[in-house]
């Protein structure tokens, strides 16, 4: 034991000069080191993170290692097939082999991995063969409400009812995973690839989802970001219900029913997404308010953009090409800023159904319409003739497709000409008084080679 005597103690051999010398500083340093050393060596194992390797003589199964592990331990799992259903009830890291050959097989029963603890990290695993009962939320990875701050990165999930289900767990990070659904089931009988409900501050980025019901489904979620994911051969690429203050950017959906179904949400940023060759809507906006829809690409869909009962938005700088209908506007659309968009080679550029005309321009800029036949006398890049984006004949030909056989007939041409010349005959329409003479942006790379954008 080392005793420090009070400097004024009569038996002290340390004078005032000694106390102010480096001697005392060195003595204090030595004592501090010894105290820290003895404290560290006395720490129980439960306070020191360890690396556990599976399988081993001590841990023949992954669940055995999870049960024996302490908080913050890392479990390194060797290549092989582990037919287990796991419950992770403490903050652990499960890490698969570098060659991506660590397989957790649920044998077709229930949930393969259930996470009930915060701060769990799972990476590099192949998780497969969950149960297939949608009503029971069978999933390859199921995250409970208590499991905040979970991180799922670089996993491969297949034969899953739901791939990843995050059930009310805040701040999840779901990145770079691949999800493939049950291929033998009807699309409507499959679960979603990534299913997220009632969270905040989440990140879903860089995932690839194929052959599930909805690629990424979010409900009652806020302050979260959906970025750079690719969905192919699904029902809805991104299905959005009752989500406010979120970002949806850089995602791609191909060969599906709907690229992005954005519904009943406010204050969204939907930007730089691509929806390609989808059977119905590219981007569907249903009851979307105070949001920015900017820089998206809609190519080869039935309807490039579908907007119903959506107001107070900014729809700008989107590229809409080669869709059967460029944009379908129903029920309002007032008080929406709509400029800088490009509508190219859509047989029906705008299908409009509302009792009031909408004006898609401001004092300086409108949109580009590939079928615009006006002129530009002063060469300022803005057409001098008003563009009427929809008329009665467009509407009638959409309602009665066989009329398209007569689209170039003299009678139809006469009726369209009369409507354009006599306002009393004109129905409510989308009107652009500042039509651009050329596209407002370069051709996007996804348009040049759309097949390379998909899975």
Index terms:
455 residues; mainly beta; Pectate Lyase C-like; 6 helices; disordered N terminus
Please describe what this structure looks like:
The N terminus is likely disordered. The chain has 2 domains: 164 residues, Single-stranded right-handed beta-helix, Pectin lyase-like (Pectate Lyase C-like, 3 Solenoid), CATH 2.160.20.10; 185 residues, no CATH class. It is built from 6 helices and 41 strands. It is mainly β. β1, α3 and β2 form a beta-alpha-beta unit.
Fraction of residues in helix: 10-25%
The strand count comes to 41
Biggest sheet architecture: 13 strands, parallel
Proportion of strand residues: 25-35%
Number of helices: 6
Distance between the termini: 70 Å
Question: What is the general shape?
Answer: elongated
Q: How many domains in all?
A: 2
**Residue-averaged pLDDT:** 86
Show unreliable segments.
1-14, 36-43
Strand order in the sheet with the most strands: 1-2-5-8-11-14-17-20-23-26-29-32-35
Gyration radius, in Å: 31 Å
Task: Kindly name the structural category.
Answer: mainly beta
List the helices and strands and how they pair.
Layout: H1 16-19, H2 22-41, E1 51-54, H3 62-68, E2 74-77, E3 80-82, E4 86-88, E5 93-95, E6 102-105, E7 113-115, E8 121-123, E9 126-128, E10 139-143, E11 151-153, E12 156-160, E13 162-167, E14 173-175, E15 178-181, E16 194-197, E17 203-205, E18 208-210, E19 214-219, E20 225-227, E21 230-232, E22 236-241, E23 247-249, E24 252-254, E25 258-266, E26 269-271, E27 274-276, E28 281-289, E29 292-294, E30 297-299, E31 303-308, E32 314-316, E33 319-321, E34 325-330, E35 337-339, E36 342-344, E37 348-353, E38 358-359, E39 368-369, E40 387-388, H4 392-399, H5 410-421, E41 430-432, H6 445-448
Parallel strand pairs: 1-2, 2-5, 3-6, 4-7, 5-8, 6-9, 7-10, 8-11, 9-12, 10-13, 11-14, 12-15, 13-16, 14-17, 15-18, 16-19, 17-20, 18-21, 19-22, 20-23, 21-24, 22-25, 23-26, 24-27, 25-28, 26-29, 27-30, 28-31, 29-32, 30-33, 31-34, 32-35, 33-36, 34-37, 36-39, 38-41
Antiparallel strand pairs: 40-41
């Amino acid at each position: 034991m080392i005793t420090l005597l009070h400097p004024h103690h009569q038996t002290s051999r340390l004078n005032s000069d000694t106390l102010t010398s480096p001697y005392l500083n060195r003595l204090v340093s030595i004592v501090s080191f010894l105290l820290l050393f003895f404290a560290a060596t006395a720490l129980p194992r439960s306070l020191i993170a360890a690396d556990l390797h599976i399988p081993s003589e001590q841990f023949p199964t992954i669940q055995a290692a999870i049960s024996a592990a302490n908080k913050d331990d890392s479990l390194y799992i060797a290549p092989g097939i582990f037919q287990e259903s796991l419950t992770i009830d403490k903050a652990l890291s499960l890490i698969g082999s570098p060659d991506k050959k660590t397989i957790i097989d649920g044998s077709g029963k229930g949930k393969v991995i259930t996470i009930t603890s915060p701060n769990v990290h799972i990476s590099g695993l192949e998780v497969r063969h969950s149960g297939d009962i949608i009503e029971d939320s069978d999933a390859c990875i199921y995250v409970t409400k208590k499991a905040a701050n979970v991180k799922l990165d670089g996993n491969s999930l297949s034969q899953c009812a739901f791939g990843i289900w995050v059930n009310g767990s805040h701040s999840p990070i779901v990145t770079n995973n691949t999800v493939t659904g049950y291929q033998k089931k009807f699309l409507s009988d499959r679960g979603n690839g990534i299913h997220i409900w009632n969270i905040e501050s989440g990140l879903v980025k860089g995932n690839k989802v194929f052959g599930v019901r909805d690629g990424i489904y979010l409900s009652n979620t806020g302050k979260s970001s959906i970025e750079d994911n690719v969905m192919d051969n699904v029902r809805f690429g991104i299905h959005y219900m009752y989500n406010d203050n979120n970002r949806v950017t850089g995602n791609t959906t191909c060969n599906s029913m709907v690229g992005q179904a954005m519904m009943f949400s406010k204050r969204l940023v939907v930007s730089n997404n691509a929806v390609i060759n989808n059977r119905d809507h590219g981007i569907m906006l249903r009851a979307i308010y105070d949001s920015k829809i900017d820089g998206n690409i809609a190519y080869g869909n039935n309807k490039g953009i579908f907007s119903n009962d959506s107001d107070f938005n900014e729809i700008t700088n989107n590229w809409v090409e080669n869709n059967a209908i460029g944009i379908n506007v129903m029920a309002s659309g007032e008080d929406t800023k709509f400029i800088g968009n490009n509508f190219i080679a859509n047989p029906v550029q705008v299908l409009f159904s509302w009792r009031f005309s909408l004006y898609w321009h401001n004092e300086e800029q409108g949109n580009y319409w590939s079928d615009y036949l006006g002129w530009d006398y002063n060469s300022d890049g803005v057409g001098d003739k008003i563009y009427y984006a929809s008329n009665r004949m467009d509407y009638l030909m959409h309602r009665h497709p066989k009329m398209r056989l007569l689209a170039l007939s003299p009678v139809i041409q006469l009726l369209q000409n009369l409507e354009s010349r006599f306002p009393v005959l004109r129905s409510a329409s989308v009107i652009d008084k500042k039509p651009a003479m050329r596209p407002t942006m370069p051709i996007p790379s996804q348009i040049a080679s759309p097949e390379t954008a998909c899975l």
